[in-house]
């Protein structure tokens, strides 16, 4: 009798759960897979899955990750909540029932699961989308994948294929911005008047990455010569001097401020940085959303700044494209991407510059 009462209470609680009701109504959704990386990697995973859900017209399933409880995605009613944390491209967390072709994820029930891992997976799923078969109770799983071309070359066996996101689609951009917006207000930075403001992001690897990041992943951690080239490009277009704020995970950011201030003096430019309490696991949200307050962004394929370059609007964005090995086996970023966007323009104008074509300062 006691066990029967317990089962009844559990049944009534589950039936009152909105997520179970949503699943029982035959809802399908798209979920993302986390790579186990840091904040920028997790945002990229969310954005990739959101692009699939946006394209298919299916809701996104929310899985928590560090700092996600401080973002709108954790409370957004358009998102399917109650999913499991997924940090593997495989289906270990799926609970298969005895009923054929039915499995459970958390309190959800699905008839099919499509994991878009390999090219054949994409082709099979594409065939399904173009057929007359309904996507009833279908779970679409989007594994974590990078956007850096170097990552694909470095490990082609792991990153078999990927989805190309139209980051400039205005409706998608508005939706992903809303999902990844902060719940709390981020303080506004105070800028001096009469300057073009530039956010410059350096991932030095100090304090987090235990290997020589610049040698192994030069598009994530470019040499300082890349930033000099980027500053030259922005300065050659800007009619004002530059106010440059250095964002970095390095515990000693002042060394970058001193370096740039000593070697780049074009148009009386000013360089600043956070002078204390700077560390790879401090000021994460504050720094990320501070990016949005600048006119220009110099980013890398460290996804902390790369995702910011896609989410926020800038007059100019500089991004590394590829690298080559120069003298003394030092990496040289060449070419680089230069993006120009004015409010009068429908879409950004994107240009690729080779190092030999980049402007010289006078």
Fold and architecture overview:
Helices cover 31% and strands 18% of the residues. The protein contains eleven helices and 16 strands. The chain has helices spanning 2-16, 18-24, 39-56, 119-130, 149-154, 170-179, 213-216, 224-237, 254-263, 284-290, 303-311, and strands at residues 29-32, 60-61, 95-96, 103-105, 108-110, 112-115, 138-142, 196-202, 242-248, 270-273, 296-298, 316-320, 323-325, 331-333, 336-340, 349-353. The strands form four sheets. Strands 10-9-8-11-12-15-16 form a seven-stranded mixed beta sheet, sandwiched between helices. The protein has a four-stranded parallel beta sheet with strand order 2-1-7-6, covered by helices on one side. It is globular. It starts with a helix and ends in a 9-residue tail after the last strand.
What's the total helix number? 11
Largest beta sheet: strand ordering = 10-9-8-11-12-15-16
Strand tally: 16
Helix and strand element order:
HHEHEEEEEHEHHEHHEHEHEHEEEEE
Q: Distance between the terminal alpha carbons, to the nearest Å? A: 89 Å
Taken together, the total number of domains comes to 2
Average pLDDT confidence is 83
- How can the largest sheet be summarized? 7 strands, mixed
């Amino acid at each position: 009798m006691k066990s029967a009462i317990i089962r009844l209470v559990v049944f009534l609680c589950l039936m009152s759960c909105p997520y179970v009701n949503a699943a029982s109504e035959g809802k399908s959704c798209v979920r993302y897979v986390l790579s186990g990386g840091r904040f920028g990697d997790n945002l990229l995973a969310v954005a990739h899955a959101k692009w699939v859900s946006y394209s298919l017209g299916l809701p996104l399933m929310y899985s928590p990750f560090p700092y996600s409880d401080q973002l709108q995605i954790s409370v957004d009613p358009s998102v399917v909540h109650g999913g499991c944390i997924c940090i593997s491209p495989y289906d270990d967390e799926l609970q298969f029932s005895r009923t054929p072709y039915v499995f459970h994820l958390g309190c959800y029930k699905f008839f099919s699961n499509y994991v878009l891992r390999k090219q054949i997976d994409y082709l099979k799923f594409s065939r399904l989308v173009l057929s007359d078969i309904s996507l009833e109770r279908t779970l679409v799983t989007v594994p974590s994948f990078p956007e850096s071309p170097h990552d694909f070359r470095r490990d082609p066996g792991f990153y078999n294929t990927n989805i190309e996101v139209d980051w400039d689609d205005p409706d998608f951009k508005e939706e992903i911005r809303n999902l990844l917006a902060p719940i709390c207000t981020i303080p506004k930075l105070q800028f001096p008047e009469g300057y073009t403001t530039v956010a410059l992001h350096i991932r030095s690897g100090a304090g987090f990455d235990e290997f020589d990041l610049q040698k192994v992943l030069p598009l994530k951690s470019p040499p300082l010569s890349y930033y000099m080239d980027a500053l030259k490009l922005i300065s050659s277009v800007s009619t004002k001097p530059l106010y440059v704020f250095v964002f970095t995970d390095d515990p000693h950011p002042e060394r970058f401020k001193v370096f740039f201030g000593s070697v780049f003096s074009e148009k009386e430019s000013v360089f600043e940085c956070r002078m204390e309490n700077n560390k790879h696991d401090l000021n994460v949200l504050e720094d990320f959303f501070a990016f949005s307050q600048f006119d220009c962004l110099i980013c890398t394929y460290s996804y902390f700044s790369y995702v910011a370059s896609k989410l926020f609007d800038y007059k100019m964005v500089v991004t590394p494209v590829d690298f080559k090995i120069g003298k003394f086996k030092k990496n040289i970023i060449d070419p680089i991407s230069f993006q120009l966007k004015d409010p009068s323009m429908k879409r950004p104008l994107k240009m690729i510059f080779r190092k030999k074509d980049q402007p010289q300062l006078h």
